[in-house]
Amino acid sequence: MPDPHKPSERGAALLTVLLLVAVMSVVAATALERVALATRMTGNGGAMDQARAYADAGTQIARMRIGDLVAANPAKITLAGGWMGTPQSIPVPGGIATARVTDGGNCFNVNSVVTGESEASLKVRPIGVAQFQALLQALGVETRQAQAAAAGLADWIDSDSAPQPGGAEDETYAQASRPYRAANRLMVDASELRAVNGVTPAIYDLVRPWICALPVTDLSPININTLLPTQAPLFAMLLPGELSVAQARQLLAQRPTDGYGSTVQFWKLPSLAGLSPGQGVSEQVKLTTRFFEVDVAVNVGGTQMVERALIDARESPATIVRRNWGAGV
């Protein structure tokens, strides 16, 4: 240690003190930065928790209103009242929540390509596979690609390890750059379709708005009273080769204001004369809606969150089947 009483060592002592001050300044600055970061993270976490609580409340309000909608007319759900897709604003302290309700069954149920009650007994359902292929073709996918994607989807979900013609099982996925295996179970979210052999990124982006993963293996429950003309491919897929997308769109545009009173009445329409829907398809067309989708977007003090929920209205009260959260709107 330099002796400050010696003139020759005073400079060294001053340099040592300056170095100590510099080190202490760096340590203090780092500590303050970490405290500030921790404070911001705590604040952000609190804001996200608050936004999520508001989103949950919005979903519960929507669930109760869905129950009221179904109870008002259990035999028929129509577009009356403008409930579908209409944004409903819910003021919350420091911001606003916006809820939208849509028919959650008017989509292609990816799990409908199989039948079975348990994961050990899931078997390929040819009519479901054909409908997925028909939907892809209605959206402009080339026939061979559509066949491969549909077969791949069925093999991905079914319980066995034997690939269908054009399909894929574990042997195919094992050859990927990052090997993986077929799920052999129902899909929980439609985004899982991206992992299926034959489903290219382009095909997934094209079909994503038209598909869903319902927690059942039922054929897609199309409510003819709520299906919009813009959703015509979802009806055309029921009768591949017999009904074009343009014809389906025209049919939906001519729907009575109060909807159809019975499926028998619907299938007897002159515009459907000569068509031959099988029993499965004719029963697939519904007048009611079992599944509803709810999106709640929350904006509180600059913090944004979206909650998406699937509501099952088959029983009273309506129940939340699943939900997920994400940042942004």
From TrEMBL:
Key words of the record: Cell inner membrane, Cell membrane, Membrane, Protein transport, Transmembrane, Transmembrane helix, Transport
Domain T2SS protein K first SAM-like: 106-215
Top-rank lineage group of the source organism: Bacteria
Main localization category: membrane
Keyword Cytoplasm: no
Localization, UniProt: Cell inner membrane
Record family assignment: Belongs to the GSP K family.
Protein name as it appears in the record: Type II secretion system protein K
Natural source organism: Sphingobium xenophagum
